[in-house]
Known about the structure:
This protein is of the alpha/beta class. The protein has 3 domains: about 20-215, Rossmann fold; about 220-285; about 295-365, Orthogonal Bundle (Arc Repressor Mutant, subunit A), CATH 1.10.10. Helices cover about 50% and strands about 15% of the residues. It is built from 16 helices and 9 strands. The strands form 3 sheets. The chain has a 5-stranded parallel β-sheet, sandwiched between helices. A hairpin with a 5-residue loop joins strand 3 and strand 4 (about 120-125). The longest helix is centred in the middle third of the chain and has 19 residues, at about 130-150. The mean pLDDT is about 90. Bound molecules: adenosine-5'-triphosphate and magnesium ion (MG). Adenosine-5'-triphosphate binds next to helix 2 and helix 10. Magnesium ion binds near residues 46, 47 and 157. This is AAA+ ATPase superfamily predicted ATPase. Pfam families: AAA_16. InterPro entries: AAA_16, P-loop_NTPase.
Amino acid sequence: MANPFQYEKLPTADNFCGREVESERLHxxxxxxxxxxxxxxxxxGKTSLIEHVFRGLPKTVLHAFADLFACTDSTxxxxxxxxxxxxxxxxxxxxxxxxxxxxxxxxxxxxxxxNSGSIKARPRLEGRDFEELLxxxxxxxxxxxxxxxxxLVIALDEFQxxxxxxxxxIDAILRAYMQRLTYISFIFSGSKKxxxxxxxxxxxxxxxxxxxxxxxxxxxxxxxxxxxxxRLGQRFDDEVFELLYxxxxxxxxxxxxxxxxxxxNGWELNAPNTHKVVQQIIEEKDEEFRLLFNGFKAQQKKxxxxxxxxxxxNLFKQENLEPFGLTRQxxxxxxxxxxxxxxxxxxxxxxxxxxxxxxLWIVKNFS
Length: 367
Ligand SMILES: Nc1ncnc2c1ncn2[C@@H]1O[C@H](COP(=O)(O)OP(=O)(O)OP(=O)(O)O)[C@@H](O)[C@H]1O
Ligand SMILES: [Mg+2]
């Protein structure tokens, strides 16, 4: 039988677990045409949640999804948004070509035959100016919604990328549009909480107060446990699952991945086997994480090693600083920068590498 766990693809409706409260909240905010900023650490399930909620929207609420992860300048952001909006409009090819060319001025449409033999119209965008493209996409979509009696929600995933783009103040331009739009709302989501909150929570920033926040953490332990047990056909002892959940900070992907390997190996659900699969999962990424680690500056590497060595606690104790040749002030500066870039988070008095998987690798290698 095929392995019932998937951890790389976004879950289908049947494979979606939990998140009832967050789903309902997001669903209602979308119906209310509110803008939303969705926070959550890597691999906890932001994108999965957005897709899940999109699937349950009424037909009169159109949804567009743009992943800004790879965007390097404002033009690429506008192009991603434009294509997402275009894809969201429901037309058959014939009417699409007729109506769409009236709505959008900056796009011409190419007819392409897909691998499966169906015919598709792909937009080819003219011009590279952010505001022109944005204006064209949004005003075209507004006219469409007005005419067809619908609304549109646009998800801009990995929105923190916008903070890295310096050729235009994308956030300021977007704000101006958001205030004028009648039928369109946005979901801004991303994993680098410090950067994303810098854009929305800081009073001096243009997007301050423009969106309602939703934060997601781990799926609730009992829900996730039952979900996994049903698929494994076995029960976990409470302590065994709790230990796994705690070790991977409740990160959805790592828990599903662990269960994938427990299932694949046909292993009993005990603590040693659970520990073994987690170690394998850390090992799998060894090469990638070595490269990632080497990309940090020398002082940052020291701070990361300290997090590994002391489990992120008591880093400022003299006896802990000494072996690393760091001063309190030096360490403090490095940690502030690592938190600012979203690589490290501080929970209570503990410093943790934000990406749980990378954190586990750091602990394994430097403790
Ligand atoms: N509610 C869920 N039900 C079932 N599987 C889920 C759920 N949420 C997340 N997953 C699993 O975890 C993986 C990671 O989730 P997802 O890509 O949605 O996280 P993310 O927070 O968007 O991560 P990133 O910050 O890397 O973009 C998914 O591929 C999916 O396999
Ligand atoms: Mg995502």
